[in-house]
Design goal:
This protein is of the alpha/beta class. The protein is built from 16 helices and 26 strands. It binds malonyl-coenzyme A and adenosine monophosphate.
Length: 498
């Protein structure tokens, strides 16, 4: 008997197809059975994992989901890792959370094997766990923590956001209702599974509704187009960069194929964009191509989705709509005072979807709440009943390809290079990536800095999307009256450059 809302929902439609991946089709019964076995294997005779953190690294697909649900059903906290993170970043995550065991797929076995051996942690093979003998499972209450997802803040190291089963259930149920999820929907899943967009919106929502999630291990524009035009997919959700890539791939097709893609994509029920501002040009072009006005919504790791344009009714360009049912929002100025309509203010959010804490970081947790309201760090404005996001309060947060990145984390790493005396990392506006990571550096006397040398070195220490794609060399960094590096001034200098 389980009290995990997502599991209870799945038990209502055992015979339906839950997941389609490169191995084939898997029913809800398969998922319940495999995850119960994985839970038993992880428990190994214990009554409950009691909040132990279990980290896993697997390609997107049935086994990934079965392991995640297995951790939940054993009473553990799931920690989905990503292959995009280099070993030092994974090591940081495992150590911060004091992970108890790791679960690997053959593709990640060597890397996780090293990480496990260095920490004397057990390493399970996913395929074996999913075949473990069934055992009695604990009753996991909804208020128990379910998941830790890492997010970059303005501090140099990422923080672990702890989401409970109740948080997830609220976030999912709200979206299922707001976006009209049905059991006969089928979504194309091309997003990473270590962030809430891929976990909550694109995976848990269909599984809550008894629908089918078609999981691809990687976003690849031609394959995605083939599936969007294949006649089975009814729902698609992605970050703006992915829509930009799809538009480019469409434009590379001969006219006849384009017409076919357009006609077929027009038949989908719903297409959603989020995780970063949707450029008006992308919205316009996508509408031209497919007839779909992308439904733009706003969310964050700590809160799930907060604001959404309507399923039925006007979807206003550059706006993210209204609060989802059960979510409260308000705008405040720097002194915490209310701001009027049409005035910019920081967006505060409250509701059952909002996380309780950053992992073992009470100071950061306390600093992000005021009287029970979560401070998002985003500036927004309410215009004619619809919110518009104006940007982040901090220049040290970059959003690139839908990933949130701390400029300070990258600066910390770059400053380890012997030839760099000073550096300032910025997000440069970019039509494809939203922002692009740019490093502005002051070389040490007599030294030269080259992007070609820096990138491979940085890739061993930072995830690919955190590695600068542009390098600017200056003799000195501009400073403000307090003597601190002025990033707005640095940005102005870079933008004046050819
Ligand atoms: C990758 N590259 C980048 C980059 N990301 N370069 C600049 N900026 C970036 N952001 C580099 C790669 O390192 C590679 O370099 C080259 O671009 C081509 O890589 P690719 O394989 O084509 O790119 P890919 O890795 O596929 O990335 C594109 C993407 C991906 C758009 C598919 O970024 C993606 O999946 N983004 C989704 C992120 C997401 O889910 N965010 C949700 C967070 S939750 P080289 O040199 O190696 O060739 C959240 C809350 C909410 O935000 O509201 O949803
Ligand atoms: P993350 O911390 O990775 O969960 O990213 C959340 C951040 O993404 C938010 O705080 C916003 O800055 C940004 N974001 C998400 N959706 C949108 C959107 N539709 N428009 C603009 N910014 C968005």
């Amino acid at each position: 008997m389980s009290s995990i809302p997502l599991i209870l929902q799945a038990e209502a439609h055992p015979g339906r197809t839950a997941i389609v991946d490169r191995e084939g089709s898997h029913t809800y019964r398969d998922l319940l059975d495999a995850s119960a076995r994985a839970a038993a294997g992880l428990l190994a005779g214990r009554a409950s994992l009691d909040g132990a953190r279990i980290a896993f690294l697997m390609p997107s697909g049935f086994e990934h989901v079965a392991v995640e649900w297995g951790v939940w059903r054993a009473g553990g906290i799931a920690v989905p890792l990503t292959a995009q993170h280099p070993k030092p970043e994974l090591a940081y995550e495992l150590d911060l959370l004091k992970v108890e065991a790791l679960v690997a797929h053959p593709e990640s076995r060597a890397l996780l094997g090293e990480l496990a051996a260095e920490r004397e942690l057990p390493l399970h093979a996913a395929s074996e766990l999913l075949r473990a003998a069934p055992a009695a499972l604990p009753d996991v209450r909804p208020e128990r923590p379910a998941l830790v997802v890492f997010t970059s803040g303005t501090t140099a190291r990422p923080k672990g956001v702890v989401l409970s089963h109740a948080n997830l259930a609220f976030q999912v149920e709200t979206l299922v209702k707001a976006w009209g999820w049905r059991a006969d929907d089928r979504i194309l899943h091309v997003l990473p599974l270590h962030h809430v967009h891929g976990i909550v919106n694109v995976l848990c929502c269909p599984l809550w509704a008894g629908a089918c999630c078609e999981m691809h291990a990687k976003f690849e524009p031609e394959t995605a187009w083939a599936r969007l035009a294949g006649g089975e997919i009814t729902v698609f959700m992605a970050v703006p960069t992915i829509y930009a890539r799809l538009i480019a791939a469409y434009e590379a097709q001969p006219p006849e194929r384009r017409r076919e893609l357009s006609a077929r994509a027009a038949k989908l029920r719903l297409m959603v964009s989020g995780s970063a501002a949707l450029p008006e040009e992308t919205l316009r072009r996508w509408r031209e191509l497919t007839g779909h006005v992308l439904l733009e919504r706003y969310g964050m790791t700590e809160i799930g989705m907060a604001l959404s344009n309507p399923l039925h009714g006007e979807r206003r360009p550059r706006h993210v709509g209204q609060p989802l049912p059960g979510v409260e929002v308000k705008l405040r100025d720097e002194q915490g005072r209310p701001v009027g309509d049409g005035q910019p203010g920081e967006l505060y959010v409250r509701g059952p979807g909002v996380f309780k804490q950053y992992w073992e970081n009470p100071d950061a947790t306390a600093a992000s709440f005021v009287d029970g309201w979560f401070r998002t760090g985003d500036t927004a404005v309410l215009e004619d009943g619809s919110y518009r996001i104006l940007g982040r309060n901090s220049v040290d947060i970059i959003k690139t390809g839908g990933y949130k990145v701390s400029a300070l984390e990258i600066e910390d790493v770059l400053l380890k290079r012997p030839e760099i005396a000073e550096c300032a990392v910025l997000g440069l506006p970019d039509p494809e990536w939203g922002e692009r990571v740019c490093a502005v550096v002051v070389p040490k006397a007599g030294a030269a800095v080259s992007l070609d040398e820096l990138r491979p070195w940085a890739k061993e220490r930072l995830a690919g999307y955190k590695v600068p794609t542009r390098l600017v060399t200056l003799e000195a960094l501009p400073r403000n009256a307090m003597g601190k590096v002025s990033k707005p001034e640095v940005l102005k200098i870079v933008q004046r450059m050819p």
